[in-house]
Amino acid sequence: MKISVMSSTGVEWSVEILPEYTVEKLKQMSLSHFCNPLDCIKLSDYYKLVSVSQARPLCDLSSVREEKIRDGDELLLLKRSSTFSGNANKSSEGQMLAVPDKGAIDLATANLERKNFDKPAMDVQLVADFQTELRRILVSLLELSEKLLRHHPDIENIFKNLQSKLIEKREPDIDEAALKKLLEMGFEEQQAIQALRENKMCPMTAMDWLLAKGCRQENDSCSETSAEDISARATAQASVDKQMNAEVLNGSTEMEQKGIVSAMLECFQEYKRKDFKPNKKAMS
């Protein structure tokens, strides 16, 4: 494929290329022909190739085939506008919009005369926010209502009833459906009402509460009965010990020691049998 490249000065150069060549490579070849070959890479960013037939600049990263360049086409090698002009404009614009600091203000106003330096500043009336204004309106309404009700004949009774209503604790209404469920389960009405009030009218939680309360009562009763049984067993054991001691004292001296040992063993075994308590972990 043979094309012609024309510089900005009007010099034309014909060159044979392959469709696989990139536009960047073609541009560097043109720069090495028109300019110093050693500077073609440095100058590549400052130039561009423009297709005459398509009337548009070519992308440097695209290939000749992708840009649809044909045999005999003419390309123009033109110098770009300043590459760094956009960045320079952005930086200058940023500097213009930057807020000056105190040093810059003092430096810029160093030679200016002071005017109205001793003039007192005007008090600016602050606009109150909505919440403050709302509070003021409510306070004024309360004051006006107090003046209107001050001489009302029933005002004392109204305030007494109001105070009593504020002090007394209102009991929550009982859910009839939840109470019916607990009564059908076999619980007493007073216990069911108390359980519902304690557990925010939830029947399942109230049922668990009642069952836990029943277990605690059973444990307390069992502990009381066990304490009574232990005291009774202790008194019975004391009487048995006295009887056995009396019997042992009546025996001979040689048989006395054997009798004491056997009596102690029997007493201990009897005590263990009476005071036997099964292990809950082993039973479970």
Automatic annotation (TrEMBL):
Listed InterPro entries: UBA, UBA-like_sf, UBAC1, Ubiquitin-like_domsf, UBL_UBAC1
Any Pfam family hit: UBL_UBAC1
GO CC annotation: ubiquitin ligase complex
Location of the UBA domain: 173-213
Gene3D superfamilies, alphabetized: DNA helicase RuvA subunit, C-terminal domain (1.10.8.10)
Highest taxon of source: Eukaryota
Name under which the protein is recorded: Putative kip1 ubiquitination-promoting complex protein 2
Source organism (scientific name): Rhipicephalus microplus (Cattle tick)
